[in-house]
Amino acid sequence: MLLHEILVAAAREVPDRTALIVPGHPFRTRPAAAVADPSSGPADPSTTSWTFAELAARSRALAATVAERTSPGARVGILAHNRAEYVAAYYGVPWAGRVLVPLNPRLHPREWADQLARSGAELLLGDTDLLGALAWPGGPSLELGAAVTAEHTDAGWSADDPWSGTTFDPAADESALTWLLFTSGTTGRPKGVRLTHRSLTAAMRASLACRPVDPDTVVLTPFPLAHVAGYQVLAHHLARRPVVVLRRYLPSELAAVAREYEVTSLSLAPTMIDALLDHVREGDGLRERIRSISYGASPITPELIRRVDGLLGCGLGQGYGMTELSGNAVFLTAADHRNAATDRPHLYSAAGRPGPGVEIRIVDDAGRPLPVGAAGEIAVRSEQVADGYWQVDTGEFATGWFRTGDLGRLDAEGYLYVLDRKKDVIITGGENVSAREVEAVLREHPGVREVAVVGEPDTRWGERVVAVVVPTAGHTLDPDELVTLCRAHLAGFKVPRRVVFTDALPVTGTGKVSKPALRERVVESSRADSGDARTRS
């Protein structure tokens, strides 16, 4: 299936059904200090609501505009905040036989320019404020709204003849590239990932099979559309259901948005869930309305699961995936969460089981399969695996089994347990320390709201373990108390040698902790510190 065929079929079957809602925040304006920072988002946007027929017409209009300005197979950059036209670009650019290159609006203009240059983009679509912050000598730019509302929209939408008014030949090969997505760079320089029609539609089908969509489902997502999490928008369109896309995440307003647009399901990172629960109030309707929350991007703590159950009482579903897998490939379902809450608590530590069409195995450094229960690198084989990296061959895709760089193990029932990022393993005195294992112990302390563990250079041991902790509001933490907790559960070499307190962890646009930024912060705090564990950044 080609991406635009999802839209063509939906526009024929349910043309007047709402496909997309992007709420505005008319009673909020950006503070004056934020005006100089385009990444903070547009001020006072109005609400946009499109039916499937309207979204199809606008996507086709954008396809025609792009086709006129670029050559077949060209890369087309997009630099924009979350907005309805962004979703039109999801469909429209591949519809024209071109490749969409989403740029994260939170990056520095130098990073945008680098990714545009590396992709060889011929055209850049974007928001006026962001385009103004970027001096791009590589090609022409076009305001995204103008591209979508070009004269081609006047042709309207015809369910009998969906190609009327077009001046281009649509792509016709499922193996053709659709999106060139740069990774978040949590472990190094972002790499361009080659996603195809086939890989994205395979990811959608896996998600819909493991997270069934009800006939009245309305899902809300605040994730940046520049991230692979945007495939969820297309998956719900494949199920012919509306999607509410937030321009930016304001947990204090989510209850009102959920009421107004009859939202039944949320897609959030654990940090977003935590922030939302701080704003849940008796009588706000969230407990009665929200039936499920899907989460990913980072692990969830048992305490947060208990808070969700107590305040919202809704089902939870976890997804494990990455850009190279076109989305989520492994799922811990609502039933798994219910089982974990009763007699199988070990499932809380699991990422889940592979979705349909996904094979998982654990391999050693040479790529050889390891037995059940053994720890090693997670490898995936599936149609949803990307076509490789853009202009880079690092070997991860060479055998047909994509090597994820994550360490994990499989149990006898086929549940996957993600132990750590391979690059996040701390080597101290010749011993390997899983940052995730140390973090899991520290999260059990009620005074720890968030925690991330990294290694910092040490002349004697190579690296030493450092825990960076965000305390729970109202708690005064003693580093020695946390160290004692770790000593009670971990081998001595895994115990943090330093505890750094901070008000917030550095995160990417999707809620993942940015380990490179965190390591820089730890090194800076070390320079200012004599070595005593009582450090606050």
UniProtKB/TrEMBL annotation:
Domain AMP-dependent synthetase/ligase: 22-390
Record GO terms (molecular function): acid-thiol ligase activity
Disordered, as annotated region: 518-537
UniProt keyword annotations, A-Z: Ligase
Transmembrane segments: none
Domain AMP-binding enzyme C-terminal: 437-512
Family the UniProt entry places it in: Belongs to the ATP-dependent AMP-binding enzyme family.
Name of the molecule in the record: AMP-dependent synthetase
Organism: Embleya scabrispora
Lineage: Bacteria, Bacillati, Actinomycetota, Actinomycetes, Kitasatosporales
